[in-house]
TrEMBL record:
<dbReference type="InterPro" id="IPR015424">
    <property type="entry name" value="PyrdxlP-dep_Trfase"/>
</dbReference>
<keyword id="KW-0808">Transferase</keyword>
<dbReference type="InterPro" id="IPR015421">
    <property type="entry name" value="PyrdxlP-dep_Trfase_major"/>
</dbReference>
<dbReference type="GO" id="GO:0006520">
    <property type="term" value="P:amino acid metabolic process"/>
</dbReference>
<dbReference type="GO" id="GO:0004069">
    <property type="term" value="F:L-aspartate:2-oxoglutarate aminotransferase activity"/>
</dbReference>
<comment type="similarity">
    <text>Belongs to the class-I pyridoxal-phosphate-dependent aminotransferase family.</text>
</comment>
<dbReference type="GO" id="GO:0030170">
    <property type="term" value="F:pyridoxal phosphate binding"/>
</dbReference>
<dbReference type="InterPro" id="IPR004839">
    <property type="entry name" value="Aminotransferase_I/II_large"/>
</dbReference>
<feature type="domain" description="Aminotransferase class I/classII large">
    <location>
        <begin position="36"/>
        <end position="379"/>
    </location>
</feature>
<dbReference type="InterPro" id="IPR050596">
    <property type="entry name" value="AspAT/PAT-like"/>
</dbReference>
<dbReference type="Pfam" id="PF00155">
    <property type="entry name" value="Aminotran_1_2"/>
</dbReference>
<keyword id="KW-0663">Pyridoxal phosphate</keyword>
<keyword id="KW-0032">Aminotransferase</keyword>
<protein>
    <recommendedName>
        <fullName>aspartate transaminase</fullName>
        <ecNumber>2.6.1.1</ecNumber>
    </recommendedName>
</protein>
Amino acid sequence: MQLSERIMGITGGGSDGWDVFLKARRMIAQGVAVTELTIGEHDIRTAAPVLQEMHRTALAGHTGYAAVPGTDALRDRVAARVHARTGVETHRENVLITPGGQAALFAAHTAVCDPGDMALYIDPYYATYPGTLRGAGAVPQAIGARAENAFQPRVEDIAPHAGKAQSLLINTPNNPTGVVYGRDTLQGIADLCIAEDMWLISDEVYDTQVWEGTHLSPRALPGMAGRTLVVGSMSKSHAMTGSRCGWIIGPEEAIAHLTNLATHTTYGVPGFIQDAACFALAQGDAFEEEVAAPFRRRRALAQQILAGQDVVGLVPAQGAMYLMLDMRATGMTGEAFANDLLDAHHIAVMPGESFGGCAPGHIRVAMTVADDVFAKALQTVLDHAVARCTARAAAQ
């Protein structure tokens, strides 16, 4: 029997970018001790009070079908949070609760793209982006953000494609680069979306992890509230990755139709998960800062370790739980360096090539292990890079 072209074509016929990660997991399964600096999984787990609330409400009986767009309590809580953070008036009718940010990305593109529509996204990108767009029936088109521009996207690079596209997907703070898009960048993108009548889908799951600068939601810019869908999640801000609780913020009409989509696909998020999310959000900014604090510390450690040398370049780490490191001085691709590092030192990182075509010779390091383990691993990365540079110079 023949499967659909859509399902068989999700990865575009090539690697999905997870090869080094999967190799590391195979090594671990074989009993090899590997330091994993690959995926955005907190080393702290979901806080005990949040789990206790989840347990309490489940035992209290909130285990049946929950309201598909989300419980009123959680939608109100998310709306209030968004209003407070962005200044944009937001009500429960602007909120759809989804099974995590990934489901929100898929639903958002399904809402604004018909089959065959072009959907733009910025390269480097989170590894699932192009497959998500293909799964939604859109035709993905990457727009490069270059290392020489500190990975800030440029309107002049987007503009030639905008007139043919239905949507543009951006992510700030950015995974994988750690870059926070500046106001000028976002205003230029907003102006282009308005001029070309294009939807903007803004992935803001790292909005609580900002180390330099300020996070600006493009929905807050003039004329953008009616053409922006914002993706949010409890995963990164509250260390609730496995709970799969996210949301889409958008115009009421879009959320109403997205609720219809959820009715026919996911049928909502379990009520006890939503109750726990509501409880977690009620803990306020101090709780979110506590979850983010380890990454702020490890960024400072990385800056100390990498200071005073010119072999490994640190892309400005302004936000998120990752570092993008420039390894081009070694003469190796990011993929070659990542595999070499894994084989030699049992340290797993993600190659820049896993995130598109604009970060060759880079690696992404997740700051997701204890401070001492992280510092030791990063020093090993630096030492390995220096050794490869020395060997390269000797061979020339």
